[in-house]
Amino acid sequence: MPLNDDQNSDSESSRLSESTASSSDSEYSRQSFNSDSSSKPGSPASASPPKVITFDELMAATRNLSNWTLAHEIAVNANFCIKHEDYPQNSFAGTVKQIVHKAFWDHLESELNEDPPEYKHAIKLFEEIKEILLSFLTPGANRIHNQICEVLDTDLIRQQAEHNAVDIPGLANYIINTMGKLCAPIRDNDIKQLKATDNIVELLRQIFHVLDLMKVDMANYTIKSLRPYLWHNLVDYERTKFQEILEETPSALNLTTEWIKESIEDELSSISDESSSSPGADSSSKPIISPTLVLNNGYLKLLQWDYCKTFPETLITDEVRLQELREKLNQLKVIACVSLITNNMVGAAIVDVPDFADQLKRISLPLLEGMNKKSFDLKEALNAIGIHICSTVNKSLSERGVPTLTEEMQSNLMGQIAHIVEKNNPVCSLIDKRIQLFMRSLLALPSFQKCMPTMPGGLSVIQAEMECLGSQYASIVNFNKKVYGPFYANILRKLLFPEAAMEKTEAEASSN
Question: What is the DSSP string of 14-41?
Fold first, then answer.
């Protein structure tokens, strides 16, 4: 078996892009690591359907990633992924790791430089590399499995070492070529850098680093593959578990009932206000309230929730996630208010300033970091933002030879920005209504529809962030509706149609 695999690379790549249903090593195409099929060849449409697995098998698989809470996170958070992290270099743990690793690689280099070379630790490294490469393969990738085992046969390498005939550069070259076939496209540049490394010890060290990155890529591909199964199976699983809790604790829906009741009262109040403003309206008729609208209004209230209050039971799993969204939304709201005030007051001065909206965000975001903490002084942050904006505008005007803002204009602008902190500020109220309008429109879309509703005026400066946040929010809401829909339906039926609910209860009692 030749160690240099370059001659076979073209035909190998061709085989590796065939159907994942194949029993050859082509089953483990690089496509399996990649979520973006446009950048690498993928399986044809005729590939076999995914294997049907039971929920127990699914949970056993996700248990290796973490636990049921992680499975819920994967299901509702489309952006969830595992990241490759290392200890900070200046930390104690990072320093210790650096010292230990340097000692290991220095020792390996000294062994290989001996005459004759000592291969004991190098053989262990090749054995570990072989196991990692094999872990990337799926069942049925027989040819590449056998090839890896033959080339990285540690018994054979030990025999070669006894005769000082180990071709370490050749083994490393084979490993790099194999990694190139199995890695995600995002690792192509890392593979190129490996091929450009001459020092064999440094090369082995970098090979392990890239293999660590490939492990993360594989985990993230597994997460993406599991998400559709998790989403559908977790609905039944969570619903069943909650039903068991409800049977043991009948009061387990009290807070949820109160949450929905408040939403109904808000809707009745809104209808009453509309009726009073319409002279021809029939005030004697009973208002018709949409259960879907009531529920959506309830979900919207969560984005303004007072987290000193206890959360509805059916949303406990997502409480932290929703609180984080609320905090991000508050930050974006302030940025939109600052942008609207600035445009209204000095719009003519900044109309020719390139990327002013991005500049405004770069100014505001760091100063608003941690604004939801009790110790945060929002008024002070807004004063600082006002000063920076005036400075940025004046600098741009000066560069173009245009008169800068007068002291009065600067004072007015900074004053208007500082007033955002006040309760019932008209600009803040306007932006808040438009954010609520966008979120309401998002919830009104069918769950399968991926497009975003039109962004209301005044929010263009935060459009990208709002769409990202809105997507996360809609994912949480849609999943929650799927799981707890039957419980919500019973509560809504009792609150909106008490007579029908009573008749149904009596009918069930008489039949029993």
Answer: HHHTS-TT-SSGGGG-GGGG-S-TTSS-
- Residue % of the chain over a pLDDT of 90: 26
Q: Are 368 and 334 in contact (CB under 8 A)?
A: yes
Averaged confidence pLDDT in the chain:
78
**Whole-angstrom Cα distance, residue 229 to residue 225?**
8
Residue 365: both structure tokens together: 């975001």
Spatial separation of the C-alpha atoms in residues 135 and 155, rounded to whole Å: 20
3-class secondary structure for 139-153?
Answer: CCCHHHHHHHHHHCC
What pLDDT band is residue 256 in, cutting at 50, 70 and 90?
Answer: very high
Q: 304 near 326, Cβ under 8 Å?
A: yes
Please check the confidence at residue 27 and state whether its pLDDT lies above 60: no
Residue 162 scores a pLDDT above 50: yes
Distance CA 426, CA 409 (A): 20
- Judged on CB neighbours under 10 Å (0-12, 13-18, 19+), 240 is exposed
**Under 8 Å between Cβ of 322 and 305:** yes
Alpha carbons 350 and 397: distance in angstroms, whole number? 8
- The burial of 171, by beta-carbon neighbours within 10 Å (0-12 exposed, 13-18 middle, 19 or more buried), is given as buried
Per residue in 417-469, pLDDT (tens digit) is 999 988 889 999 999 999 999 999 998 887 666 678 889 988 989 999 999 99
Token pair of 239 as six digits: 């619903």
485-508 residue pLDDT tens: 999 999 999 998 876 655 565 555
CA distances for 417 relative to 48, 351, 387, 428, 463, angstroms: 60, 19, 10, 10, 20
Cβ count near 21 (within 10 Å): 14
Length of the chain: 512
CB of 322 closer than 8 Å to CB of 476: yes
Question: Can you read off the two tokens belonging to residue 374?
Answer: 């009790």
